[in-house]
Amino acid sequence: MYTLPKFKNESLLIRALTHRSYVNEHPEAGEHNERLEFLGDALLGYLVGEVLYKRYEDFSEAQLTRLRSGLVDQNQLAKFSEQLGIGKLMRLGKGAEQDKGRQNPSLLCDTFEAIIGAYYLDSTITPVRAFVKKLFIPVADSMIYPQSDAGQKNLVDSKNRFQEWALAKFGQNPEYSIIDEEGPDHAKEFTAQVYVSGKMYGVGRGRRKQDAEKNAAEDALAKLKKPGLI
């Protein structure tokens, strides 16, 4: 059973748990968690990368990138939030509450990232590194040594598979563009397109820009598979 780390400054934890929708209804609550989310996202990218680099010495750059991508995606971070009981602690506005924000993978993911950012400000990098290792290493090992083919499939995400195809076919990386965003702040949905050599190959939607891009890559791969191009 995982538990949230202890904070010396409880106000940082409270801010990490505070969604924009709550501040909109309670201006006296102070700052919402989006800046902490930005910091936590950057820290997770670095710390998870460091853990993987040191633990899996025989892995190539491409393998490490794929594994990190699977570990820090929305669904996995939302699972960590659920394990830590973050959903019931989040401070949400009435609209987000009515939209089942406590079970929303996007909000759970964002709040987890905000807590990582807050914990860093509260305790510096060493305790955060230890916390990340405890959470992420068992999941990383399960992806590398899966009990079924489904576990192995998670290791290679759609963006990496499409990038490999684009590099092999054209010698170019895909380019992603967010072409639309709609919905209230607590339930945004983004639309992305992916291009190679100026040609659009896929479209995808998601609650986060990263997920919209992944879905665009999946759409591109599905379209390539039909005529047997991959």
Helix-strand layout with pairing:
Layout: H1 10-16, H2 20-25, H3 34-55, H4 61-71, H5 74-84, H6 94-98, H7 105-123, H8 125-144, H9 149-155, H10 158-170, E1 175-182, E2 189-196, E3 199-206, H11 209-225
Helix pairs in contact: 1-7, 3-4, 3-7, 3-8, 5-7, 7-8, 10-11
EC number: 3.1.26.3
Binding site for Mg(2+): 37, 110, 113
Organism: Phormidium nigroviride PCC 7112
Keywords:
230 residues, mainly alpha, Ribonuclease iii, N-terminal Endonuclease Domain, Chain A, Double Stranded RNA Binding Domain, 2 domains, three-stranded antiparallel beta sheet, 3 strands
User: How much of the sequence is in beta strands?
Assistant: 5-15%
CATH architecture of the largest domain: Orthogonal Bundle
Largest sheet: 3 strands, antiparallel
* Helix/strand order: HHHHHHHHHHEEEH
CATH superfamily of the largest domain: Ribonuclease III domain
Number of strand elements: 3
CATH fold type of the largest domain: Ribonuclease iii, N-terminal Endonuclease Domain, Chain A
Strand order of the largest sheet: 1-2-3
SS-based class: mainly alpha
Radius of gyration: 19 Å
Shape annotation: globular
End-to-end separation in angstroms reads 43 Å
Determine the mean pLDDT: 89
CATH class of the largest domain: Mainly Alpha
Number of domains: 2
Low-pLDDT stretches: 147-155
Number of helix segments?
11
Question: Helicity level, as a percent range?
Answer: 55-70%
